[in-house]
Write a structure and sequence with these properties.
328 residues; alpha/beta; five-stranded antiparallel beta sheet; 12 helices; elongated
């Protein structure tokens, strides 16, 4: 009997580990583009899911953004069916909000969520790799948007409906997924957008990371991924502290919500700023920039009689011993 390719073995183990805590009888859906990452994920899922008593399918979203996209989607679905997955293709119309890349991503996630609901699936499997994680961390660092961006992508995220979004390959290198497809005789589709230098992610992939590897030595991608993991652990600890604290210091106010000045001032800056951002996001559905957050914090820590602060969808003002956030 021929020995199993190390790449196939590595990816099967990653998928088996990610699916192990799902209850038997559950259904999982693989987001399949036809690229090496998602094909390797689909092949490993088709192999491992039945052993765990799971039903498995694939969904290929045809965004219609490129000539021949329907043929690419059809080929991916045929491959999935040959692997033993229940294969589905959905064609979507993509808008322009935030640019074509962001619009396509938003449309894809909406379709995946709807398809998972229709199938009664408990999880959607996404083919992001360690390299994708490293790129995400670098892009977050460039934006200067703090630890939230540097956390990268979570291995598992559960939405409000209980659907899990699982990334089994976040510890797997991109070259391993391609080697897996080669060893499995799977025909890979290379998305032309992944070579388009107009996209910041492509420039990070093709230019920035290779320079960092050359100048600082190998292991940069792994180091960035470890950084993301450590920051997620910190964020989870902060979130627990915030939710324990927030119950005692937040009160509903007319047309808004208020926070105790004394409690905010008594907390460390990192916790204070997270409380402010969480309160505004939870109540008004908007994200504050760091500058906006710091200006609100000054109402508690550096009070000099300043007036209300205009924020997205609301305003913040010091009223007695409280900071009151009011809808605009």
């Amino acid at each position: 009997m021929p020995s199993l390719s190390p790449a196939i073995a590595e990816i099967r183990l990653a998928v088996r580990t990610a699916l192990a805590d799902l209850p038997a009888g559950s259904t999982v859906v693989v987001a399949l583009s036809g690229g090496a990452d998602s094909l390797a994920l689909a092949a490993a899922t088709a192999f491992e899911a039945p052993k765990l008593g799971l039903q498995a399918g694939s969904l290929t979203v045809d965004h219609g953004l490129q000539d021949g996209s329907d043929a690419v989607a059809a080929r991916a679905a045929r491959t999935a069916a040959a692997l033993g997955l229940d294969a589905l293709i959905v064609r979507v119309e993509v808008g322009e909000d935030g640019g074509p890349e962001a619009a396509a991503r938003d449309a894809r996630y909406r379709v995946l969520k709807d398809a998972a609901a229709d199938a009664g699936a408990s999880a959607v499997l996404l083919g992001h790799t360690l390299d994708d994680q490293a790129e995400t961390v670098l892009l977050g660092l460039a934006r200067g948007s703090g630890a939230a961006s540097l956390q990268g992508m979570a291995p598992v995220r559960e939405d409000d409906d209980g659907l899990r979004w699982v990334r089994p390959l976040l510890a797997v290198r991109r070259e391993t997924t391609r080697a897996c497809c080669t060893a499995s005789d799977l025909e890979v589709w290379d998305d032309p957008h992944n070579a388009d230098q107009r996209f910041a992610r492509v420039r990070v992939r093709d230019r920035v990371l290779p320079v960092l590897e050359a100048e600082l030595g190998p292991g940069i991608a792994e180091a960035l991924a470890r950084t993301a993991e450590q920051l997620r652990e910190d964020a989870e600890a902060f979130d627990e502290m915030i939710h324990e604290t927030i119950e005692d210091i937040v009160e509903h106010a007319e047309a808004g919500i208020s926070v105790s000045v004394a409690a905010l001032a008594a907390n460390p800056a990192a916790l204070r700023n997270r409380i402010i951002r969480l309160v505004v996001d939870s109540e008004f559905g908007v994200s504050l920039t760091r500058l906006q957050t710091l200006e609100v914090a000054r109402l508690a820590t550096d009070w000099a009689g300043q007036g209300p602060i205009d924020l997205p969808s609301c305003s913040a003002a010091r009223v007695g011993g409280r900071i009151v956030f009011t809808a605009r």
